[in-house]
Structures are given as C-alpha cells and as structure tokens.
Amino acid sequence: MERDPERCIQCQVCVRQCANDVHEYDASDDLVSSESSRCVGCHRCATLCPTGAISIREAELDFRPNANWTASAIRSIYKQAEGGGMLLTGMGNDRPYASYWDRMVLNASQVTNPSIDPLREPMELVTYLGRKPDKVEFEGRNGKPSLTTELAPQIELQVPVMFSAMSYGSISLNASIALARAAQAAGTFANTGEGGLHRDIYPYAGNMIVQVASGRFGVDADYLNRAAAVEIKIGQGAKPGIGGHLPGEKVDAAVSQTRMIPEGTDALSPAPHHDIYSIEDLRQLIFAIKEATVYAKPVFVKIAAVHNVAAIASGCVRAGADVVAIDGFRGGTGAAPTMIRDHVGIPIELALAAVDDRLREEGIRNRASLVAAGGFRSSADVVKAIALGADAVYIGTAALVAMGCHLCQKCYTGKCNWGIATQDPILTKRLNPDVAARRLTNLLRGWSHEIKEMLGGMGINAVESLRGNREHLRAVGIAANELEVLGVKPAGVGA
Amino acid sequence: MKRIFAREDYCLGCRLCEINCLVKHSRSKKIVKAFRRERDTAAPVVQVEESGRVSFALQCRHCDDAPCIEACIAGAMCRDPKTNAVLCDEDRCVGCWSCIMVCPAGAVLRGKTRKVASKCDLCAGEDAPVCVEGCPNEALTYEER
CA A205 to CA A213: how far, in whole Å? Predict the structure, then answer.
C-alpha cells in the first residue's frame, strides 16, 4: 500500500472501506496512515479513492532471492510452523502452469471460403443442453412432416456461457440475486451451488440450475421442481476429492433457512456422496432425481477433471446424465486447502478433448452435452473450448470479476471488501444487485458479439457448427504428445 | 420534478457524495485544491447519516410545500420557476436560521464562512447532481417518482 501524500486529501474513504483495518485516521494530526502488512491487495481503497492517491504494489522481496525457496514458500512454512494447520486459500489455481488456451489459435476464412459479417447476416448462438436422440424419425401427416421421436428435456441457452455453481453462503445474497437476474436477462442459466434456493431467487428459478451435492443442503422436491435443471455435484476443479466447509459464523438465519440446517452450525459437505460409491449408485441418484422431477428436466453431473476423467465421464453418461460438466484445475472456490487447489487435477483443455474423444469413440456423444468449466477468462477461451468439443462453458471467476472481484484470494476470510464472498451485512450492501446484474449482462452481451465475430470470421453461422470442430484450432508451442491428446494440429499445418 | 432518493440498503457510508459535493461547490472545483486550500470556505451540502449498520446520504428534499420558503423572513428561500428546486438566494439571506428551525429533514445547513443558509441546489446546470453521479454503488438515484 502506497499513499501519495501530495494527492491524499484525508477524506477517509479508504478508512471506511477497508475490512482489514489497513487505514487509520488520526484526528489530532488530521492524517490518514496505513499499515501495509494487513493489506490483502483487494484494491477496494485504490478503486474508490477520489484522488487516485493510493497504489497497491507487490511488497518488495524481503528474503534473499532463491528460485526454489520463494518468499511464499518460506512464509507458508512459518505460518504452518506457528499454527500447525492447513494452508487455506480462495479463487482458482494461481500457479504458473501452462495455459493451453493461450497456445491455441483460431482459424479465419480467406479467399477460398467467405467469412460472414454477423452485423449483416444471421448468426446463431442458441445452444440446447440435454440428451439428443440417436436418430430422429418423422412421419408424414396431411402432407407435412411431423416428428415422432420423443425428445429428452433440454434447456435453451441464448449464449453458450452459464454462471457456474456458487452457493448462497459462500457468496452474498446480493451476489446470488445479481447472477440469477443476469442469467434471466441474458437468456442463460446460473447455478445455486450447494446453497439452496433463497426465496428472493424464486422469480428467477426458471433460469436456475439447482445443485445436489454431498451435503444435500437445501434439497427437497420443491427445490428440484422449481429449477430449470438439476446438477449432481461430484467434484469441483479447485478441490477434487475434497468436501466443503461453510463455517458456522456465515450460517445466519437466512442461510440456515435456505440450506435447511440449524443456525450457526458448520455446513460440512462430505468428500464423497456417501450413497455414491459406483457408477451404478450414481445412476440411482440420477433416476431418483428424474423421478422426482417427472423426467421434465435435464440432470447434470459435474465432475472435476482428474487423470481418468474420460472413463469417468463415459460412466456418467451411461448412468443417465443428460449433461456432463467438467471442471478443470483452474476452477475457483470460496475456500480450499492451498496444496489441493494448486496441485490436484488436470487442465480443462486436455480433459475436455479427452472426454469428447472418448464419448465419440464410444458412440455416446449425443447422449449428453458437455459443459467445460475452470478458469475461462474471455470469449476466445469459450470459442476454443467449443471447438475442442464443449457445448457450453461455465464461468465463475469471470462473473465475480465482472461484479467487482479483484482476485485477492481471501474469500475464505469472510471479509470480502467487494461485498461478494461475505455475509457481513455492512459488507454485503456494498454490492448493489442492480449494478452487478447490469455488469454481468453487459459482459455476456460483449462476449456474444465477440463469439459471433469469431464464428463469422471462420465462415460459420451457427455455434453448433463449431462444436468439436478442432480443424479450426491450431497449436503454437504445445508438445507433440499433448497435441495428440488435444487432437489439434500445429500451426502451419493445413487441412 | 426529479428528486434525489437514497437507497439505504446499498449505501456504503463511504461519503464520496460529500466529497464530490464539496468539490462541486468549491471555488476551484479541483479536488486536491478544494481540500487543501479551500476547506475554510468549501463544505458539502449533502451529509451521510449513519447509525450502526444503516447509513444514507441526506440532502434537501425540495419539498412541494417547503416550510423553509414559508418561514423565510427575507424572501431568500424561493422556488426556481423552471426546475421547481428550492433554492436559497445567499445575497438576500440574513442568517436568521428560521429555515433551519423548520426544515423537517435537517437538510439546511449554516454557511461555513458567511452567515447565510447553505443547501442543496441539485447542482444547477448539471444533468444529474454530482452526489448521484459519483455514488459507486448507485445508492443515490435522481428520478421522477
């Protein structure tokens, strides 16, 4: 934290905004001073400072430079030596693993195939998620064809981007409402996570996917039937194989009612579902949910991208999942052990390609839609994911950033200065859902325009024509064996 | 007429409205200069009221039947015929504080240097008052209701 004394006017906006008590006003000296060691780098003060007097910089390295023993490695050990606990963190994996999105480029039309201008010609982004039939059959009636194949339930997305599971409890009600409202405005879907469906979100339930996770919080027949679709959460990219823990202090009256647990108790989601130890068990739960919702809603199964993801996804499809969501290792979280977040799971790019290939090889790709998740930052990432085989993507972190998140990774402290990952009433009112919903809707609108432009450039007029069309991807700087997994050619190789 | 409304559910209590108001009603209109050199004269006419978790910005309500106009002994308080805003003609004001006594909202303030009543003028000449424009959480709105 650096304060420019020439610009600071002692107005104390920073003092009033910091939940970490970094800034302090001394009335006798009429001076605002700051204690940088408490700063988490959330930028709240810098963003609101009316004179731009505050800048946040990375603290200077105070250890002897060492490529192996980095300052964060040393500090982590000091912390654990003191407390003996696990290191906790929030948001997604921040380690410098290679991003395959950044090493893949898209195609465009030149001379021999015309590109399309989406501002002049129709461009279709509508995506249907759900089981597709093996074949469609028609019969002629009065000289007109009519479909005789019975279609499985689908959800219709106006843009192939949904908001991923973020529970009310981990995020504030204002943030949940903003996500739901934006999903409705943009014609897409938001996901409740394992937080139950708050009454204030009922008006948007038609654009909500409700989650059934290992703690089964907030689940009853009404919850399942209000929603557009139901998602069984097996795992999460940020913490595969790990359960969840919402601390009791965040479980206030409203969270307790929505999650259907006593006030002030810790909400513990077990690591596995204790009634699912096999694909057959998963099938039982999928069909229990389908029975409960009279086969009117698609059932998602969300899994974390792990080493054997292709076989697991195949099992999920065979178990009856209508949509399989795969969450890569960059997926975010409100709280996870740092070691798990940073070292468990595999990149979504490789997982997605492997799953799409496997389902195609087995001839069951049509039986389920694929949703990719975990660290999507831009519309280009979305287009690349669709070209790799996804039907749609989930965005979580990008949505939070649109609402104001500055990725300080302190979600687990409950002191989110942006009013997102907190239940403190003084902090939650900082997020006006009208403003946040508008920003989310704007983001999706911007991305839709960009997706259309990219499709048009490739000479494609419907997002469906891009799905799994890896000919439109080329790799720059990806090792040959990884290219094999991705099914993508190196740049410079023609069709 | 358009009025300023506070939405206390979303007020952060950051007081940026006060800061923007002070700058707008300062001589230089420059924030650093206004705070450094003009603090003796510049003062905001919006005030954030705070009690525990609740906070909201309060400025003149520009009442339809404004008691301050009735009470003004000098004819300084008057209604702008075009905008319907309640304004104080500081050249006429004699500083008797009758307006302050009758204002139901406590929104008329004493001038910082001159002995005249000081109050919100809806930032005459602007599309929207600066307190509304500058609110980072849209906790102030400027609208017909």
Answer: 18
Own/partner contacts of A285-292, CB < 8 Å, gap of 24 or more, are A285/A212, A285/A232, A286/A232, A286/A319, A286/A320, A286/A321, A287/A320, A289/A212, A289/A224, A289/A230, A289/A232, A290/A320, A292/A221, A292/A224, A292/A225
> The CATH number of the domain where B137 resides is what?
3.30.70.20
Q: Which domain holds residue A39?
A: 2-55
Query: Has residue A24 been placed in a domain?
Result: yes
Distance from CA of B122 to the nearest CA of A (A): 21
| CATH number of the domain to which A140 belongs | 3.20.20.70
CB contact under 8 A, A51 and B31: yes
Low-confidence ranges of chain A (pLDDT < 50): none
Nearest CA in chain A to B30: A51
Cα distances (angstroms) measured from residue B73 to each of A37, A40, A325, B102, B121:
58, 56, 73, 12, 20
What is the extent of the structural domain holding B126? 1-59+120-145
What's the pTM value of the predicted model, to 2 decimals?
0.93
Cα–Cα nearest to A196, from A179, A215, A175, A174 = A215
**Closest residue to A430, CB basis, from B7, B12, B35:** B12
* Parallel/antiparallel/unpaired status of strands A323-327 and A369-373: parallel
User: What are the chain A neighbours of B11 within 8 Å (beta carbons)?
Assistant: 429
Quick one: B55 and B72 in the same domain?
A: no
User: Whole-angstrom Cα distance, residue A87 to residue A171?
Assistant: 21
Asked if A11 and B12 come within 8 Å (Cβ–Cβ), the reply is: no
Tell me the pLDDT tens digit for each residue of A291-329. 999 999 999 999 999 999 999 999 999 999 999 999 999
Provide the token pair at A154: 């689908």
Assign residue A29 the CATH number of its domain.
Answer: 3.30.70.20
Number of domains in chain A: 2
Chain A residue numbers touching B51 (CB-CB < 8 A): none
Residue B81 and residue B94 in one domain? yes
